[in-house]
Inverse folding.
């Protein structure tokens, strides 16, 4: 339930309002001169909304969470004692690592239908556009060696002509 | 005496937890919080708009998502985001 109160009225009963919010998880809209200015809500409700917003901005976490609950629904859950057993005051991670590795997606062999588009899309592959790229570029780099660098201490003709034109202009 | 629920973890939750490389101290803290969830849900809060009702409890940088019924607490996600 959302209540609307003026700031002046809310100030007079702030302690009671805070207690009510904690118990009933509702919100109070605070108005000033008839205009809604602020909202008062319980910490629990604020955390709930924040948690939802955070989860919406991390779709990979949302997917992982959904998958986890789906596994539990299928009865694939592991008890805490088996997943994270305590041995001499320390958490034994060996069973947990084993479970995590078992749960991780396994590599699979791609079918030829999946491989062909992937190769075509890859510019470095030996087929499609990649092949044209190598055919064009490689002979050029072989035939044209790099021009020798001008000797240090001497300016090149181009640089000299640039500076002379600057002086005259 | 408070009712004790069995804590059950999804393999996916273990996978996401290990992907975040928890330190020994973090593992102990996560273990303790999960163990406490068996007795009390008091430090958790509900994630709005999620159905069925799903709750979250934070352990340092780790976020734990769970649901519960009369006898079990089901951990669907332990990870970082």
């Amino acid at each position: 339930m959302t209540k609307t109160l003026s700031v002046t009225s809310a100030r007079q009963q702030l302690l009671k309002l805070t207690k009510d919010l904690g118990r009933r998880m509702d919100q109070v809209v605070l108005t000033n001169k008839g205009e809604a200015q602020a909202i008062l809500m319980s910490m629990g409700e604020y955390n709930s909304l924040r948690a939802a917003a955070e989860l919406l901005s991390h779709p990979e976490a949302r997917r992982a969470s959904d998958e986890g609950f789906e596994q539990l629904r299928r009865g694939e859950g592991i008890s805490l004692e088996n997943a994270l057993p305590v041995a001499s005051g320390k958490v034994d991670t060996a069973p947990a690592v084993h479970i995590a590795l078992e749960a991780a997606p396994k590599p699979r062999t791609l079918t030829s239908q999946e491989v062909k588009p992937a190769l075509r899309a890859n510019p470095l592959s030996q087929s499609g556009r990649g092949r044209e790229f190598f055919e064009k570029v490689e002979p050029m780099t072989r035939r044209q060696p790099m021009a020798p660098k001008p000797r240090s201490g001497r300016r090149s003709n181009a640089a000299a002509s640039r500076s002379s034109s600057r002086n005259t202009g | 005496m408070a009712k004790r629920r069995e804590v059950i973890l999804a393999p996916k939750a273990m996978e996401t937890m290990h992907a975040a490389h928890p330190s020994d101290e973090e593992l102990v803290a996560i273990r303790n919080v999960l163990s406490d969830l068996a007795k009390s849900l008091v430090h958790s809060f509900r994630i709005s708009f999620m159905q069925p009702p799903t709750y979250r409890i934070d352990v340092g940088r780790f976020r734990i998502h769970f649901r519960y019924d009369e006898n079990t607490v089901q951990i669907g996600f332990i990870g970082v985001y």
